[in-house]
Amino acid sequence: MSDFDGNFMETTSYWNPPASPSPRTIFEMLNQIDDVVNPIAEIFPQPTDQSEQRSGLGERLAARIEFTLPRLETDNISPFAAFFRNTNDVPSPMVPISPGFSPSALLQSPNMLSDSPQINPPSPVANYEPQVMVESCGEGNATTMISENDLPHYEPMNVALPTPQEGSDIPIEESVYIPSHESHVEPQYAPLDAPLVASFDTEVVDQEDNDDIADKQDVQASAPKRRKFETSSNMIGATRVSKNQRIIIQMESDEDHPDDGFRWRKYGQKVVKGNPNPRSYYKCTYEGCNVKKLVERGADDVNVVVTTYDGIHEHNAPVPRGSGSKFRSGPSMSSQDDQTNQTTQLGMPPSSCYNNPVSVDTTMTSTGPFTSLAPPMDMTQLYMTGLSKLPSLPVNQNTGFMYRNDEPRMDAIPNGTDVYKGIMNRLFLNFGTRF
DNA sequence: CGACTTTGACCCGCGC
DNA sequence: GCGCGGGTCAAAGTCG
What we know:
Elements: H1 8-11, H2 23-32, H3 39-43, H4 51-54, H5 57-65, H6 81-84, E1 95-96, H7 103-108, E2 131-138, E3 141-147, H8 211-220, H9 223-233, E4 246-252, E5 264-270, E6 279-284, E7 292-297, E8 304-310, H10 337-342, H11 362-367, H12 379-389, H13 393-399, H14 418-431
Antiparallel strand pairs: 1-3, 2-3, 4-8, 5-6, 6-7, 7-8
This protein binds a DNA duplex (16 and 16 nucleotides) through residues 193, 223-225, 227-228, 263-270, 272-273, 279-281, 285, 292, 294, 321-322.
């Protein structure tokens, strides 16, 4: 697989069709074409037979946690709709919430939502709850991604949240848990460390404003303890327990170590229980970078490579060795480099919406996340934004990509499928280049 | 020769 | 305390 660094247009002429798009490739492709039209929406018409599953989420949540959430505007939601819908219908894949309110900061803060008089955080839920991931791509927008246990999907919600009061006295240790209505989940839920754990697990960090808090919590939570916490809580909602973020991406690939734009050094390999395929351990080779990733093949499908990023890149993707113009960095390496460096990167190249203005959704621009005055988007946003574009659910449903324990997963991008072809077709339409 | 991979040993947390 | 399992270390080997 050839790789490139942030300048898709310059590298496409060199690029031969990969066996399967790497995470990096996918993200960059999708970001590049994001401003033109929502490609996934066109590629993957939204199924219409799942509305029942989506309906009444607010009621389900309310019933589950015994209080009434603010209204969730899910009227127009179909699976992936807010992410993949054609821009003619919805100009932004991000669902707006209260203006002036930063869902990113909210969700990255340990006291997120807890200052809301409408929400009284319940006790931590059982650890086999589905995960609720929340992210935004700007101050005025937020998207909630929900993976339910039996059916991974992203369910955008429009949550009206109060504007946080300045100086409000908020306990920093609290978290918000948003339990799901699902009740049939078996308690033998696989822990995070189990082979091919599919949970999209992340510990949301607000590195801009709360490093001191994170540091304190880091001291209290060594890696094993943190892992235990993750297992025990299954990360319902977004709880900041450390600076770490863990993202699990799976994709179909012939390569054992698909390129993601960063340089990694393999420091270990282990066969873990429940998976005959060894798990490889990689560290980022960038000096001072502590990001690690685990790569393993699926126990059930060896064609699926599961990559778990653990940590945050605080540097740009390096230029590959021996690279000439082929790997010449794109715009992100120049004027926007500084901005990129102010943000966090989690196992991903610095080519996402915030440092690639071309991909910025116009409505998001109007809300300010990509202006010079806006805080840089954090890596959770970056990741989730990209991941939200992955054509996941239709693929999984059609191919039965459910894994042990029915744990929600990030989904594979099968090579040769309509998914992949669709992406390529969209690239062709947008750039006039056949890939 | 430097970067990277391989691989067995070791460490440590956890459950029993 | 002991065994298990996941994660890490580090020496040796490989590659370009």
